[in-house]
Structures are given as C-alpha cells and as structure tokens.
C-alpha cells in the first residue's frame, strides 16, 4: 500500500513544494552566475563585499563582518584577496587613527560595472518569456514571502533587518 507522504521521486513540476522550487532556482541561479563570473577572478561572496562597499561606503573589517553576517576571520581572508587583486585599499580612519577603513578602488568600481552587467543579463534570463505583468507579480510575491519570513519570531534576533522594507 502506498503512503500518503510524498517521496522525493513523487515530485513533478506541478506539485513540487514552493520551498523546493525556491531552493532549486536559487541553486541554479548561483551556478549560472558563477559560470558567468569565470573570467573575473572573483567569487560571488567577494563581489558581494565590493557591492556593499559601493553602496555603504568605506568601513572597518568588523563593520563589514557585521553588515554581511560572516565571521571576522572570513572577512579577513576575503579582504586580503581583494586587496591583493587591487579592488580595495585600506586606509587609516581620519577621525580615529586606531581604525582602518576599507575603500573600494577605481579597479573595484570597474569590476562592479562588469558584475552589474552579469546580474542584469542573468535577470533577463530568469525572467524571459514572462509578460510585464508576470514580472511584476513575481517580484511582488517574492517580496511578500520575504516579509512573511521576517515577521516570524525566529527573525526577531537576526542581526539584520528586512533589507526590502522601505
């Protein structure tokens, strides 16, 4: 007698749970972007650090670690690599000489321009064959899912707040 529970092999495109679809799309997206980035010398996390520096401005390694929610030693490894590649530079803080701030270099700005193009192209691939209305609906539904999660008690202690709230 067959159980009422789903087995992994029972899922089809029509009945796969939303969380599995999201995980699958996320995994495929990461793989696709990584392939697109193969000529850039960067990994996705390093590109993320550059993007944060572009959006927020110069910051200390501790502030960067807090901002992206990874350990300071992990940030240190990434910062060393990015500095070696010439995408960032360290400077002493003008107000507090004990603090070193990480700055995006001109070369870092340039590679981010390339990354933005990769992300735009990837988004075009993700959303092709969708009407304008479907694209708007897709965005609205994803934002609603994000809001739903951030409203749960498990997110109250999360060090970051919902980045999609205005």
Automatic annotation (TrEMBL):
It comes from the Bacteria. PROSITE patterns: HTH_MARR_1, HTH_MARR_2. Keywords: DNA-binding, Transcription, Transcription regulation. Gene3D superfamilies: Winged helix-like DNA-binding domain superfamily/Winged helix DNA-binding domain. InterPro entries: ArsR-like_HTH, HTH_MarR-typ, Tscrpt_reg_MarR-type_CS, WH-like_DNA-bd_sf, WH_DNA-bd_sf. SMART domains: HTH_MARR. One of its GO terms (molecular function) is DNA binding. Residues 15-147 form the HTH marR-type domain. This is Salmolysin.
């Amino acid at each position: 007698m067959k159980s009422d529970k789903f087995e992994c092999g029972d899922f089809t495109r029509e009945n796969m749970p939303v969380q599995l679809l999201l995980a699958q799309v996320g995994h495929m997206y990461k793989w696709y972007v990584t392939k697109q980035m193969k000529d850039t010398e960067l990994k996705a996390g390093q590109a993320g650090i550059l993007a944060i520096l572009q959006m927020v401005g110069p910051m200390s390694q501790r502030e960067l670690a807090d901002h992206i929610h990874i350990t300071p030693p992990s940030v240190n490894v990434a910062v060393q690599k990015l500095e070696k590649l010439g995408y960032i530079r360290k400077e002493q803080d003008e107000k507090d000489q004990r603090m070193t701030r990480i700055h995006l270099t001109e070369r870092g700005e340039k590679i981010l321009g390339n990354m933005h193009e990769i992300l735009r192209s990837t988004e075009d691939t993700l959303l092709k064959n969708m009407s304008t209305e479907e694209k708007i609906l897709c965005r609205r539904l994803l934002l609603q899912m994000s809001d739903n999660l951030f409203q749960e008690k498990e997110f109250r202690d999360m060090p970051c707040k919902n980045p999609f709230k205005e």
